[in-house]
Write a structure and sequence with these properties.
The chain is an alpha/beta fold. Helices cover 42% and strands 15% of the residues. It has 15 helices and 12 strands. The strands form 2 sheets. The protein has a 9-stranded mixed sheet, with helices on both faces. The protein has a 3-stranded antiparallel sheet with strand order 10-12-11.
């Protein structure tokens, strides 16, 4: 049961009624808010509607508390104000971790699951810089960009919004990160404990990620991707949409570049975001390579032929008219310095 250690604004009976109403069959977020508006309170709605039983609610709350979590009900003092203002705000959230992060200004950082090394690296740089200025970083605990953002923001504050129950680890390879966020950040879920992350739940999850935030930052969104759904919801919610641009020849940036064409704010570093939001700009440090390549050498020819768009290694050999061994040596050196990314089909690109 709820242990009473969290400050509430709701009377206990109304809070309990809201939990029962929210967990009732065929009552989604919009219907929940309409019912309260119509009947005047959740208590009155529960008298007139078929709602979840106290026994069912007790079982869920016991499982949630056993997993280390607790309920946040809309109307609770700890419920995030930015989210509560939305017409489809989740009536109930399961929370595990530090709910004080919900009082911090928040930015969402989302992007491709199959992200490039360069994309993950830039996501980490943005999360680190923005976290240092006081922002909590929200994302969806997916592979790729989400993971990079959460990991970089663990020390400054990160919020992971899950599509399934708060005890459901997805993807499985993020089990350790899930545990770390529960200990050092905050896990949130609209779904009841024990519910697996079904496909239809991810767009609903995305509206929470954007709804918590002052803005959404998109890195590497393909033409059809969940990140575009998050960006669309952010725009509908009146949030800023920030986008990191990419090569028009790289399909991973097709959606990103379309967002910029349609009016999203182009991002080169954290200061582009801070300036728009009215925060003081910060000192942004980028990791630069210390290696120098003498002009006119075979290495310089290979480096000049490389770019952000993946290029086949065989094409580099033909274009530079140097031996395959020489190209391989330069590519290995660049890779060890963190300047080169390898792609499928024996293709490479500069980061």
């Amino acid at each position: 049961m709820f242990d009473g250690s969290h400050v509430l604004d709701l009377a206990p009976a109304e809070r309990r009624a809201r939990l029962r109403l929210a967990r009732s069959t065929r009552i989604g977020p919009v219907t929940f808010h309409e019912a309260i508006a119509h009947f005047g309170s959740a208590q009155a709605a529960c008298v007139r509607l078929a709602t979840c039983t106290d026994a069912d609610l007790d079982r869920e709350e016991e499982r949630l508390c056993g997993a280390g979590g607790h309920f946040l009900v809309i109307g609770d003092a700890a419920y995030p104000a930015a989210l509560a203002a939305l017409p489809d705000a989740p009536p109930v959230l399961s929370a595990m971790g530090d709910t004080s992060l919900l009082r911090r200004p928040t930015l969402a950082l989302v992007g491709a699951r199959e992200a490039s090394m360069a994309g993950r690296r830039f996501a980490a740089e943005l999360a680190t810089a923005l976290g240092a200025t006081g922002f909590a970083i929200a994302s969806g605990l997916a592979r790729g960009i989400d993971t990079a953002a959460h990991e970089a923001a663990l020390g400054t504050g990160t919020v992971a919004v899950l599509a399934g129950g708060i005890d459901q680890i997805y993807p499985p390879q993020n089990a350790a990160l899930h545990r770390e966020i529960a200990l050092r950040g905050l896990l949130l879920s609209e779904a009841p404990v024990g519910v697996p992350p079904l496909a239809r739940a991810f767009p609903r999850r995305n509206r929470i990620v954007s709804g918590l935030s002052a803005g959404v930052i998109v890195i590497e969104a393909a033409a059809r991707s969940g990140s575009l759904i998050t960006a669309q919801r952010a725009a509908e919610q009146g949030r800023e949409v920030f986008v990191v641009p990419g090569s028009p020849m790289d399909p991973r940036y097709a959606g990103s570049n379309t967002l910029i064409r349609d009016g999203a704010i182009l991002v080169r570093d954290a200061n582009d975001i801070l300036g728009v939001l009215g925060y003081p700009t910060a000192s942004v440090q980028r990791i630069e390579s210390k290696r120098t390549i003498a002009p006119g050498t075979e290495a310089a020819q290979v480096l000049e032929a490389l770019g952000a768009v993946p290029t086949a290694v065989d094409e580099l050999v033909r274009r530079c008219q140097v031996s395959a061994a020489a190209v391989a040596e330069v590519l290995l050196a660049l890779e060890l310095e963190g300047r080169l990314e390898r792609h499928r089909g024996n293709r490479v690109s500069l980061m």
